[in-house]
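The record is given unchanged here:
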Amino acid sequence: MARLTELARVVHGAHSPTSSGMRWKIPLIVFAAMLVGAAPVRGQNQQYVYISSPTSGGTSAQQTLSGFLLDPVKGTLTLVAGSPFLEGRDPEEMAIHPTGKFLFVVNSSSGTNSVSVFQVNLSTGTLTENSKSPFSAGGGSMPQVVVSEPTGRYLYVGNFASSDPGAPKTTGVLNSYAIDQTTGDLTPTTATANECGPVCSTMPVNPVGLVADPTGKRIYAYGGTNSALGLNGAAVQEYTIDSATGNVVPSSGGGTGTFARCLAMDPKGRFLFSGRGQAQGFIDSNPISSVDGSLQPPVTLTFASSSLPDSLAVDNGGNFLYAVIAGSLRGFTIDQATGALTEMPGSPFGAAGTTIQSVVTDPIGPFLFALSNGVEAFQIGSAGGLTPVAGSPFTNLGGVAIVMTGATPVQPVSGPVAKVTPAMLDFGDVTVGTPNGPKPVQLTNVGNENLAIVTNGISISGPNGNEFTPQSQCPPVLDVAMSCTINITFTPAATGVRQATLFISDNAPGSPQQVPLTGNGVPPLPAVTLMPGSLTFPDTAEGDSSVSKIITLTNSGQATLMFSGTGISLMGSNPGDFNATNTCGTSLAASANCTITVTFKPTATGARTATVNIVDNAPGSPQAVSVSGNGGAPFGVQPTSGGSTTATVNAGQTAQYNLQVTPSASFSGSVTLQCSGAPTAAVCTASPSSLQVTAGTPAPFTVSVTTTSRGNSQFPAPFAGPWRRDSLRFLPQPWLLLAALVALLLFFRAARTNSEAGRRSAYSRVALVVALVGIVFVSGCGGGSTMTVPPPPPPPPPP
């Protein structure tokens, strides 16, 4: 189906796609995280994570949504039955209704321009599309961002620009809808007439972010880029919400820099964070006035060239900001007074080479979820660091946007309301006597009055209460929308299931709040730690023994390590080439260590390998350490001190080489010497013909090469190479013919000379020419030889 208009393709340049399958990327707007501060109890018992997966150029059957059930204790995700769900249009950015009952999806292609509405089954997480869905995007074209404000009564959709051909293309369009609380139907609100029609308001062109403050009084839009018109700005617009009608009124705004990219809000409503940049990336932290919601001058964090922010999310406590920057997930601590950002230790997070696209934080729990090729899950630590959840990533489903349920809607209640997360804390299997944890329990005041905690009101009791230890970080009074943490450590005193209950006494309804605690005590076990994990010996001559190397075996468990069966032994390809002794005995106490001493004594040349095998009662038995080395020859042949393997002699003379056999330290015996392969007419002899060698002591011998004609004799190391004998050299035929012709001319000239003296002189010159030719002919003939003694035969086997 048709995907984008030419205008939409221009927009593509203003965003940073992270894969070839994405048409253009609108950074994720984290709705759930910014809604945590408002009041009362959720109408659902489960939390769900949803992702949108549009397929560029695909059929309607390839445009889907997928849902995951969250384990609130472990942070693991389970694919909701029926996923992926057919959306059929162009699913991009999404918003969750504060009650979790509805999922709103914008369809961004120019041919759709609509908002799909799905009902969420609060028990199973399955999605069912509203019978009247999709709903028109109103007076705009290409809807790009969407948010449901915290009361859950109104939905706001930001469009790239007006759909009116006569309207200016320098501004976007913000549409507002009333939400039917039973069906999720969308009805345009009655707005004051303005330049974009009766049910919309102007906003920055090409909006990339739309967030609502936790009080439900204001929303903020971020955008301003339209490359087709040369607009590269980044502008923030604040709107005040009319609580009676849902209409919005622009109240203040501002902007800085170029190329708006993403937006997020502190869930406590204190700071607005905006990411921008084209060649270089920036994140602006704007403090928000508590009086009128206006934005104060920003504190800006600058990144290196091409490090551009694409998605932002703030944890539910408002302490940490997480950003997708150039595909990497990075974390920052937030200065609670100024909003300034400082990158935290360990950032960036996630597996190397993983490309992250969008992030969302758990609005009521300590988790963060990132969309890549699948859904990555992390637990947020007390200092903001991220630890991957076991089993992450979950499925290989990809997409462009991610949202999750869990925000608490604003309702007309009064007084403090305590919300405790998780509802139950399970420590799993823990070794008896070993502390496990701490694990957090989060207390949040979701009411509209301060929550007072009774003095010494945080305690643990129950059948095994003394095995669970609380450490509270909660103040005596918890302000509205504020959270605090109670860390629990579990130290089982015996095996089996251990249970207790955490009690929190306060001035909220339902006090004391209760959280069941459980864990399973398991017997202590030994554990084996081996250092180093492998041994490599230096090259060692056959029959020699290397220097010993040591392996340290430590019982790092909490029970006695018992060696069984073969205990500690050598196995593998060449166990006979190694020797292993140990000080470990038959058992090793907890925290004790012993040593295994290994020596290498090769029985043959080449690579030799084996394994030190350890059979015991620890998990993972048998443990193994690989050992390896190379065996060398038992002796070698070299020149003696001052000797050489080359010599130059005249033809007919003898070349002599002073050599020696050097045995290894462990080799003694008889070595037979033979010399063969001498050139023709040359004789090669070794003297003596055999040697008696003793371990490590060199034994000298000589090699003589006697030649029969002049030339050079050379003995190149290592006694190998071809023998060449020069052939006779004669004066070339053309020169012989020329010399004969000269002699003949001189002879005729002499014969024609009149005087006897002249004839004798001419005849002398003829004789001289003939003599010279003869000399050259004879000197052109020579002889000689160059020879090389071949290598000695292979050494005999060791005695």
